[in-house]
């Protein structure tokens, strides 16, 4: 429910006391009736929501959005078609982007989003699949597996860099040590063994 929708937008939607539900943005915004109700709140009920179709068919949704675009043009509201089309086609990210767009348009406030690390970055090194496991996963999701392979390659690269830097430090420290200390250490080791 409401995954990906910023908290500020959820509070904003709750403050509008909307009739239509907004639990699942991609489904609830697709027919345009929720968007019409949001704009009605700001434009004094100038959209007749009863004239919009409540059918899930693409033809009716498209007709609803055409009516909304007429309203946008009449009131000089800049809502580009590139923002509307993903909503009309029920894309999750499209619905969230549309909500963000109309929030900034209607409230003149910017959305401050907290950047979270991707799930792929939180994978521990022992959970990264080996090359043979990746080969065996024929029916798996190729996008996810490519992320795992990328993470696996990054991890091995970091390990190699770390081992090279440690080896460089050891060799530099060995060069700086006087040879007398090496002899003392060897003699202590011999003494401890016997």
From TrEMBL:
Domain Calponin-homology (CH) stretches: 3-110
Gene3D superfamilies hit by this protein: Calponin-like domain
Gene Ontology biological-process entries: regulation of cytoskeleton organization
GO molecular function terms listed in the Swiss-Prot or TrEMBL record: microtubule binding
InterPro entries recorded: CH_2, CH_dom, CH_dom_sf, Spermatogenesis_Ciliary_MAP
Source taxonomy: Eukaryota, Fungi, Fungi incertae sedis, Chytridiomycota, Chytridiomycota incertae sedis
GO annotations of cellular component type: axoneme
Protein name: Calponin-homology (CH) domain-containing protein
Domain of life: Eukaryota
